[in-house]
Give the backbone structure.
Amino acid sequence: MNKQNILIVIAPALLLTVLCLPLAASAWGGAAVGDNPFFSAYGTPFDTPPFDRIQLAHFKPAVLEGMKRQQAEIDAIVASLKAPTFENTVVALDSSGQMLGEVGNIFYSLLSAATSQEMQDLASELAPLLSAHQDNIALNEKLFARVKAVHDRRARLKLDDVQRYLLENTYKGFVRSGALLDAERKERLREINREHSLLALKFSDNVLAETNSSFIVIDSKDDLAGLPDGVVAEAAETAKAMNMDGKWVFTAQKTSWIPFLQYSPRRDLRQALFACFFMRGDRDNDKDNKAVLQRLMVLRQERARLLGYATPADYYIEPRMAGTPARVDAFLRQLWTPALARARAERGEMQKIIDQEGGGFRIEPWDWWHYAEKLRKAKYDLDDSALRPYFMLENVQQGMFTLAERLWGLRFVERKDIPVYHPDVRVAEVRDRDGSLLGILYMDFFPRDNKQGGAWSGAFRGTFYRDGKRVVPFATLVGNFTKPTPGTPSLLSLDEVSTSFHEFGHALNTLFTDSRYRSNFAPQDSVELPSQMMEHWVLEPEMLKLYARHYQTGEVIPAELVEKIRNSSLFNQGFETVEFLASCFLDMAWHQLESALNVNVTRFEKQVMDGIGLIPEILPRWKSTYFTHIHGGYEAGYYSYIWSEQLDCDAFEAFKETSLFDRRTAESFRRNILARLGTEDAMTLYKRFRGREPRIEPLLKKRGLL
Ligand SMILES: [Zn+2]
């Protein structure tokens, strides 16, 4: 997962990444701010955040002051009597809001990694203030007039690629927010945005309510046959929490839902639980999302038309790497045909098991997980607990560092004198090959009850240049990995190993970024390239030798175990890919509609699925009535994940063509991608690295579709 979104909370309307540095005490000191550390120089090593002194009460005054200062900076740009230039307008806007960015990055990072009810309350209190602040910038007509004046003269300005990209994206940010519209249309756009944000919230609230109220209750032990003890114990806990002591509850949460579908031999119960998931938002009750979805689409269509786009998909995809809906569709279709063929073959294998067992029925969607699990056991016999001893956390971490050392000559030196927000957090200074400081890396690996689930990477501060000198970034790597217990160190699952390499890739991207300006416009369909790239090394035998050693014996993971893992990685990929792609097509179809006014949600979805020839044994992973991604930042963007995967699979081939630790390839990947992503056109950067556009074959191969 990528949490770089915490870097752009300050001005997403403009797509500005506002990242900051601490301000000198003398300028803003005084009795009114007391001992608030945000109002003076930190006095810490490298100016890292003074976590030992930051208290909750410090955030609000600092955010308010940050907004005030940025507004003053904007006012100064607008009030200038000098003719607008690239420097006095576009660069000045880019460098505005330093304090707000700094405080915001720290606040939103902690809101995920070390939260509290008070912090969440403060976040709700700040949200409308920040969004009004953003609107004040995005809708500032005089500011836009100056940006437009610079943009109109762009051909004569002799800008380099990075400057042109900054100007183009800054201008586009305003235009896409409606800056070119007349007053009446602007007002209509504001109305649309207001209604849209409320409805999007309602959509996700409905899904949450439906998820919480969708479950099956089991009251006889006989009905639990086949389920592993851990799964049964969890179901008992869930029942207890719902005041149904002595019973077992299975829910529409995937952690409960999937094990039941995998292990329960009871078709009737599987079918009942299956419906809990797939009927959410589609029960014609007060939480039904069909009308909500339809209205959301109507609003998006009107907004797209207002802004001069034929459909919402055209609007959303324009700033991304794919560029046009047609290109996304073509990409998805290239994957679809082989994936569907693979899924049909998998269906055949499972039907064979059913027939051999004398089942006497045709496989249905609620049977798939169950027979896939049987097939997996029979074919691969791979046990997660046999792998863990080879993946002790300290070894995995050292493995990531060694990889960065082999590829780029980096050195990671632990620092004990840098303040942290929790004793679990470890800090390393990262030194470049020539010994210079590249940045600081904070690592926070273990679950806590004040930490969000999952894993992510972000930053307390991004990088930029001040007076010609690079200000170093402070990257974070946060996870919820298996904890050590008395007598046993932290032993990771294979999944956790991949996750830590993944987040390490995001962190390297942050550390390597070398940009004159603060703004970063990395397109959504490119941000998983640096992270997914690093996952490719995890299972390479040459790499495993460097880190996958048994925590007791020191023995390198046996080759036959590695072979088993590699073979099983292709298992059920037809299903996984088809289920995922079906949702991509659904997303694209909704956003390519010109009018949703008279659309029947159920019929439309069926028509789209029939159109791509989806087999009835598989449903899209997310159906229309609970597809929260496409109302929460991934509008016409669910494809982004697999688009990025095409890039990282193709990029990794560059190492396969040379060698796994090839320094020249690594250097080129760093210079063209890791250091530059978000500061120049992403496809141009990719072509500079690879010498051509990405090819789809490596992705097809990785998923066993070739
Ligand atoms: Zn990610």
User: Anything to note?
Assistant: Confidence is low (pLDDT under 50) at residues 3-32. The chain is about 55% helix and 5% strand. The two ends are 27 Å apart (CA to CA). Residues 1-2, 502, 506, 528, 531 surround zinc ion (CB under 6 Å).
